[in-house]
Automatic annotation (TrEMBL):
<feature type="binding site">
    <location>
        <position position="397"/>
    </location>
    <ligand>
        <name>Zn(2+) 1</name>
    </ligand>
</feature>
<feature type="disulfide bond">
    <location>
        <begin position="363"/>
        <end position="384"/>
    </location>
</feature>
<dbReference type="GO" id="GO:0005886">
    <property type="term" value="C:plasma membrane"/>
</dbReference>
<keyword id="KW-1015">Disulfide bond</keyword>
<keyword id="KW-0862">Zinc</keyword>
<comment type="similarity">
    <text>Belongs to the peptidase M2 family.</text>
</comment>
<dbReference type="InterPro" id="IPR001548">
    <property type="entry name" value="Peptidase_M2"/>
</dbReference>
<dbReference type="GO" id="GO:0008241">
    <property type="term" value="F:peptidyl-dipeptidase activity"/>
</dbReference>
<feature type="active site" description="Proton donor 2">
    <location>
        <position position="543"/>
    </location>
</feature>
<keyword id="KW-0479">Metal-binding</keyword>
<dbReference type="Pfam" id="PF01401">
    <property type="entry name" value="Peptidase_M2"/>
</dbReference>
<dbReference type="GO" id="GO:0008237">
    <property type="term" value="F:metallopeptidase activity"/>
</dbReference>
<feature type="binding site">
    <location>
        <position position="401"/>
    </location>
    <ligand>
        <name>Zn(2+) 2</name>
    </ligand>
</feature>
<keyword id="KW-0732">Signal</keyword>
<keyword id="KW-0325">Glycoprotein</keyword>
<protein>
    <recommendedName>
        <fullName>Angiotensin-converting enzyme</fullName>
    </recommendedName>
</protein>
<feature type="active site" description="Proton acceptor 2">
    <location>
        <position position="398"/>
    </location>
</feature>
Amino acid sequence: MEHSSGRVIFLLALVGIFSQILGSPVSLKNPTPAFTDADAWNFLETIELLYSQACNNEMTARWKYITDVTDENEKDSAAALTAYQAYQASVQKMILDQFPNWKETLTNETIRREFTYLASKGPAKMDPTKVAQMNDLQFKMESAYATATVCEYKNDNCDKKLALEPDLEEKLRTVTDFDELAYYWNGWHDALSKAVPTSTYKEFVGLQNEWAVANDYKDMGELWASPYADGAGDFSAEKFENEMYDIWEDLRPLYEKLHAYVRMQLRKDSKYQSKIKKFGYLPANLMGNMWAQDWTALDERTKPFPEARSVDATQAMIKAGYTVDKMFHVSDEFFQGLGLLKMTDTFYEKSMFTKPADREVVCHASAEDFCLGGNTEDFRIKMCTGVDQDDLVTVHHEMGHIQYFMQYAKHHFIYRDGANPGFHEAIGDALALAVTTPYHLQCVLELDLEIEGLCDEDGSRSTIKAVTDNDINFLYRMALEKFSFFPFAISMDAWRWGVFNGSIPEQDYNSKWWEIRQKNQGIAPPTPRNSSSGGLDAAAKYHIVGNVEYIRYFISHIL
């Protein structure tokens, strides 16, 4: 294994090599406006392979870190990211030096679009020391999330520590005792709010905003909004945010009906009547999910027709002998059946499908493109998969990302991305949605859901009949999954937009987090959270510490 210091020196040396190489193919050493679209295209062709390789170096180091969370791998990954950002900055500088006034001079829209992207990628005007500091803070937050644990309930010796995935997630889905659920919910939020205090997050936000300003945006919220520009010419971050709020307000009435119905059903259980007010908030620990963003765990206890079957294929999968490996191959066959591409051998050789027993990993499911475009078969999924319906859906979702990666691999680097972040997520969501239908589960995958009349003996769809109680239960379960998500998704970035633009000051980080979530989700923590302690409950969600813009998921659900 290479020593961290050696890898840091190697990666930083690459930046200098890249810069020297980039300076030679385009004979524009002296800045001059006398360049053509052809000159600009030659420049793009020259940097294409180099840009891809720089990205691959960063992704390779990051993969090693997220699949083996150690201090050494964290340092290597941070160094690789810093080197990649320095390379991006060198490309920015070359565009400014060699193509002055390119916005006014270039006429080809494709070339202009590539230049627009490249000119905004990287901290050309930001102090490299601050860039490294920003990266270091993000890695430390991610590491805290990946390694956090909670002692088992009523285990005074704490000889069994539970990680979020799969341990705490399983507890929140299956346990019904209010106090035990409150213990696990509080335990996770306490662990992360202490590991990532508001002071740390404020420092990180300040550096993020410096990055945004270095790329000619007023703050990171405006930079995050920029991929959603519709080309109409009057786009602004404020307009975009208001459009998202307007969409949410259109959805709110139906969500509030779902919220009221679930509250009524839960109050029928005598052990919850004193915990849930008739017209009050729902306790966050009772929703079957750490963030109350998915309520499907409440399906059996709240469904409209208790005697009719629910569509949860988990037991049928176990009965049919499903394994994690089979789940991925079933998903692969599904995509091939649509005429799409087969997963590569490298995908199966190098992906991480289950949580290793011998090391810490970042369990949050993700699909990764190793950046080499048409010259590679290297696409991977990282996931701590379990054999259940929820993870079967997630497998299809993540493989949807991989399909998208493979389909656009032949294009220039800047076009190897989604039309916008929300569209990328929508690809996976749309395909995963088809997998959850009773017909697909029982008739195509031959899982025994014990629902009569779905398909004929040959597996074909039966003649459509009147709507049944099973159908209503299925639609209700979909509402528990999809509609419960909207208010959480809008709350995530509504809070961060306020943090980025300064309208939410540090002393209000935690109180505003809960104020926004109570307003939108109608949930409350099981016990009051101490907003004066300096802790940050928002850090209990991966996308906060991982610095992933979240409105993409809101948009993907709309699409």
